[in-house]
Amino acid sequence: MRKLYLVLLPICLLSFYTCNDGDIITVEFDFDDTFSVCSGTDALVFYKTKDDPSESLSIKIASLSLADILAVGDDNIYEEDFSLSSTNPFNYRTYSNSSLPTSGLFCSEIPLSSVKITKDIESTSGTVKIKTVLTEDDNDGIPAALEDINGNGNLDDDDTDGDGIPNYLDVDDDGDNVLTINEKPDPDGDGNLSDALDTDGDGIPNYLDNDDDNDGVLTRDEENESQDQNPSNDITNSLIGADYLNPAIATKVTATKYREHTIYQTYVVTLTVSNFDLQIISLDVFDFGTLENSALSTSRKLTPTF
């Protein structure tokens, strides 16, 4: 929750009420640190609302879409400045309603008849900075920081199986077609990988070992003739488990491809406003917050070349 301190200056044009010269009224109100977004007619509207009393802050940016601000560059960052203007206004509004609707307040072609605006103060000068940072991860149960195998601080050059996908994005770090998360890299979930499962005791944990039972047959080749890129369901002796963990079974059926990978993506969009003339906010730079939207969590799929 962010507390904003509004200074109502003696500029009577801001309201329909009279005031005395020299009166300064300081009002404190709370908005969440997050904001929402909706698409209008060839524009994006960033907004946040609160009840008790009912208020809103909104910024409209014309000729912009959500896809535009999620189009990050090679560095996984999008950053752009926009000038406030009559077509890109920054508004503070108050309402007579005791509570505001959760949808339809902004970007609705037909204004909600149930919502009555009692004050609308607008800034048409200043700068809005929008920044988007994309973070990708494999959600394999290992924090990305612990997948820096060579310890040089660069996650992109750690690729145990040589499939072109760095370990922190690779759901199968050793390329054995058994998902890393299923190879118990962190059995007790404490973030310490020293107890990672090592079936054959060779000092290489299963999630980095391409021959988990050390029987001379690669784990990915210990499938039956009906290959599905999943050695876990090929079981000769149910008392021991999958053949790739049973050193007494060394049947080889050469694998022909890797399994499909899912890489999870999270976009973090932040917005700041500077040099604006919304006189009720006595800040040089206003942190509008972080965008809260389900579209910011997504994924992409790929299958490495075998």
Automatic annotation (TrEMBL):
For region Disordered, the annotated ranges are 148-238
Determine the domain of life of the protein's source: Bacteria
What keywords are assigned to this protein? Signal
Instruction: Please indicate if the UniProt record lists Signal as a keyword.
Output: yes
**Biased composition annotated in UniProt, kind: Polar residues:** 227-238
Task: Give the residue range of the signal peptide.
Answer: 1-20
Protein name (Swiss-Prot/TrEMBL): Thrombospondin type 3 repeat-containing protein
Source organism per entry reads Mariniflexile aquimaris
